[in-house]
Design brief:
It is built from ten helices and eight strands. It has 270 residues and is an alpha/beta fold. It has one domain: Alpha-Beta Barrel (TIM Barrel). The strands form two sheets. It has a five-stranded parallel beta sheet. A three-stranded parallel beta sheet has the order 1-2-3. α8 packs across α9. It is globular, with a radius of gyration of 17 Å.
């Protein structure tokens, strides 16, 4: 069994062949694909997509790079959607200091922090895990997680230090590894993939973003690359790929328990 814990199948890059990609993923043994929203404007799209495809599950949240177009009303809408549609997690939420440097634009960091912390409060209120977006902001993410004590989740595309990884794990988080791990020059990420406890790792593609090395920066990433990504992890850890599939899938189901439920029960229809 394979689980892609982070994939944006609602993105425009899949408009021409979305159904085919999902069907091929099923044929490859990808039993579940988690599709997080990035803005209030695509809540309905990710829900509708997952209602059409039983192997897809949605998370709902406002991404830090979309907070400029967000409003306080979006947070109330998020609560309403949680109560009505029961997502597997709150996400994709977090902080991104790569595009918006705190020193150059403190107002934007303040706005990101507001939406992040308010969504942590919502996750805590509804006892939901969160799917984190973290770029150049791990220490601040950890600070807020200690304050609000949410029910764990996944640190998507983790690229921090081993010590930061240990702190996230202690707070109930799994760490997502995908295309970035496949590059031979990604020494830090590959070392983390080797040394972190196996029970802390989940697989992801972040499709259509972060393409693996064999596709290259100009290519489109899809969930169909997940089995090859799993093989890279198996090679790095010097284990059989079947072990990678079993352990990472069990990890995903443990941190996103509603995925198990969704394997047997359909989403509420729109």
């Amino acid at each position: 069994m394979l689980i892609d814990t982070h994939c944006h199948l609602d993105a425009a890059e899949f408009d021409v062949d979305r159904d085919l990609v999902i069907a091929q993923a099923v044929q490859q043994g990808i039993s579940k694909i988690v599709i997080p929203s990035v803005t209030r404007n695509n809540f309905d799209a990710v829900i509708a997509l997952c209602n059409q495809h039983k192997n897809c599950a949605y998370a709902l949240g406002v991404h830090p790079m979309y907070v400029d177009s967000a409003s306080g009303d979006d947070l109330e809408t998020l609560k309403t959607y949680i109560e009505q549609y029961d997502p597997v997690a709150i996400g994709e939420i977090g902080l991104d200091y790569f595009v918006t440097n705190e020193k150059n634009n403190p107002e934007h960091i303040t706005r990101q922090t507001y939406f992040f912390t308010e969504q942590l409060k919502i996750a805590k209120q509804y006892n939901l895990p969160v799917i984190l977006h973290i770029r150049h902001a791990v220490d601040d993410i950890l600070k807020h997680l200690r304050r609000y004590e949410v029910n764990g989740g996944i640190a998507h595309a983790f690229n921090g230090s081993f010590q930061q990884a240990e702190q996230l794990i202690a707070l109930g988080f799994k760490l997502g590894f995908g295309g970035a791990m496949t590059y031979s020059r990604a020494l830090k990420i590959r070392e983390l993939a080797c040394k972190l406890p196996f029970e802390s790792i989940v697989l992801e593609t972040d499709s259509p973003d972060i393409p693996p090395e064999w596709i290259g920066p100009a290519g489109r990433n899809t969930p169909l690359e997940l089995s090859k990504i799993a093989q890279v992890l198996a090679d790095l850890r010097q284990v059989n790929v079947a072990e990678v599939l079993d352990i990472t899938s069990a990890n995903a189901l443990r941190v996103l328990p509603k995925l198990t439920y969704l394997c047997t029960s359909p989403h509420v229809l729109l």
